[in-house]
Amino acid sequence: MYYPKVGEYDVFWGKSGANLRSIRGAAPRHKIIADRETGTAFAVVSKTYQLVRHEEALDLVEEAIARNPEFGSPTRNISLSPDGARMWAKYRFPQTEYDIGGGDLINPTINVQNSYDTGWAFSIHFGAYRLVCSNGLRVGKTFVHYHHRHTRGLDPRRIQRILIEGMEKYSYQVDLWRSWVSRVTQPQDYERVMGRMGFRKGEANQIHEEVERSSDITLDDIKTRTLSYWIFYNIVTQYITHRVTDMVRRADLMSRVQRAF
Question: What's the whole-model pTM score?
Answer without folding.
Answer: 0.80
